[in-house]
Write a structure and sequence with these properties.
Layout lengths: L10 E4 L7 H14 L7 E7 L5 H14 L2 E8 L2 H10 L4 E5 L8 E7 L8 H13 L14 E3 L3 H10 L12 E5 L8 H8 L3 E5 L18 H9 L4 E5 L6 E4 L5 E2 L1 H14 L7 E5 L4 H9 L3 E5 L3 H11 L3 E3 L5 E3 L8 H15 L3 H4 L8 E7 L9 H14 L3 E7 L5 E8 L2 H19 L1
Helix pairs in contact: 1-2, 1-4, 5-6, 8-11, 13-14
């Protein structure tokens, strides 16, 4: 079975336009409810959301669908995606749902589903849910006392806060550290500052006033300039930037310079490797991670196993091969000792633990390798298959021939928005830039 509705991270699009409509959300809930109804026990679903205006619409539509499917609904309100994954498993729910478009602007939204084990669904299960939607589920809906009930979970934030704090090494404290935390006006706007403060830090919270329309707007992990400025203004030891659903992390050192996901993975991999905490001699990352990371790990005797773009594919490879550290350059860091998906707060605490234990600044500890020059361009397109065009293919072949073994090129469609991403890296920065520009120009010409 193939998927048409689900992408690399659930279902995503502009809210109140196909496919992100209340009607679609209702149908997804009915189909997912049928998919995960197994046995005669009372079934339950945990539903969380970020701070987008459209979350209200989708939350009530999903709730109605799951109730009609005979599932009890537990509503958490705004919480990070990893919190929903954790609560799904901790509360013995049959399925978990996060309403979020992650780092996208507020007028987008999405639906992410988790299985009872707290992991994102496989392609096969997502395809099965789509098939149920297409066929109308093929089974009568429950009636009478078999209908579901809905209630809010008042202690959900506290459960998540304690779970995150438990990932920080016992006996350590953040006392003496001043930390700027940018919550992207998103799902972590309450829990992130609380975690850091309760562990002893002096906290400077920014982007913690969501109004339904300002999530990710000039803030958060995809727009770090303000966070970087505030680190310098406040004389902070470092800054932490989360995205709208807090499953990714970007760090700024005390000078305001950015430390990306590749450097964070290198930091954790070396620290855990020295402590004997790596489950296997290596980590998992995507094809987007810099060659500099691969070379650095190789120098430590560690492997870099690559997957397609998308943290769910990183997690699947980690589970299949027994790795406990993985992630993406964009800041999704998966530490499977503590979480089933990327968790920006847990990743931040592991980075902070290294700083505290080593008594080093973020600028000293956070740059372990020199990245190869890398250029990434995103091109929006209206439709069609630009990558199938002969001129585009020719531009890519020419670029690959020019770079040879000294670099690499990656051209792909985004799985979460109508964008084609062109990335190249190599030893010669000017050459890399020219190759990316040539390919991007070819795509723009075809895409209109």
């Amino acid at each position: 079975m193939t998927r048409k509705l689900f992408g690399t991270d659930g279902i995503r699009g502009t809210a109140n336009l196909e496919p992100i409509t209340a009607d679609m959300a209702l149908k997804v809930a009915l189909a997912a409810g049928a998919q995960f109804t197994r046995g005669d026990h009372r079934h339950r679903v945990v539903i969380g959301k970020d701070t987008r205006l459209s979350c209200y619409m989708l939350e009530y539509a999903l709730t109605s669908g799951f109730l009609a499917a005979g599932m009890d609904v537990l509503l958490t309100g705004p919480l990070p995606t990893p919190a929903i994954a954790m609560l799904t498993r901790a509360m013995r729910a049959d399925v978990g749902v996060m309403i979020s478009a992650s780092h996208n602007p507020y007028d987008d939204n999405g639906i992410k589903l988790f299985g009872p084990d707290g992991y994102k669904l496989s392609d096969e299960i997502e395809a099965a849910i789509e098939a149920r939607m297409a066929s109308g589920n093929g089974a009568p809906l429950p009636t009478g006392n078999r209908l579901g009930r809905a209630k809010r979970i008042d202690d959900a934030p506290g459960r998540y806060i304690e779970s995150v704090k438990n990932s920080f090494p016992k006996g350590l404290s953040l006392a003496g550290l001043k930390i700027v935390v940018d919550c992207a006006n998103g799902a972590a706007y309450k829990v992130a500052p609380t975690v850091l403060w309760e562990l002893g830090a002096e906290v400077v919270p920014i982007a913690v006033e969501p109004d339904g329309t300002n999530i990710n707007r000039d803030c958060g992990a995809v727009s770090t300039s303000f966070m970087q400025e505030q680190v310098v203004v406040h004389g902070a030891d470092l800054g932490l930037a989360l995205d709208g659903d807090a499953d990714r992390l970007i760090v700024a050192d005390e000078t305001g310079a950015v430390i990306d996901g590749d450097q964070l993975m290198a930091l954790v991999a070396r620290s855990w490797g020295e402590a004997g905490r790596l489950a296997k001699a290596g980590i998992v990352a995507t094809v987007m991670s810099n060659l500099g990371l691969e070379r650095f790990l190789g120098g430590l005797g560690l492997a870099l196993v690559r997957t397609p773009v998308g943290d769910r594919y990183v997690v699947e490879r980690m589970r299949a091969d027994g790795y406990n550290v993985g992630g993406e350059q964009s800041g999704h860091i998966i530490l499977s000792d503590y979480a089933t998906t990327g968790d920006g707060l847990i990743a931040a605490l592991q980075v902070l633990a290294v700083l505290v234990q080593s008594n080093r600044s973020a600028s000293e500890a956070g740059r372990l390798f020199q990245p190869l020059p890398q250029r990434l361009v995103s091109i929006r397109f209206g439709g069609g298959q630009p990558l199938d065009d002969g001129k585009v293919k020719s531009a890519i072949r020419d670029g690959e021939k020019t770079l040879g073994a000294a670099g690499r090129i990656l051209v792909r469609k985004s799985g979460t928005e109508p964008v084609i991403r062109v990335m190249a890296e190599g030893e010669d920065e000017k050459l890399v830039g020219r190759i990316v520009d040539d390919i991007a120009t070819a795509i723009r010409t075809v895409a209109g």
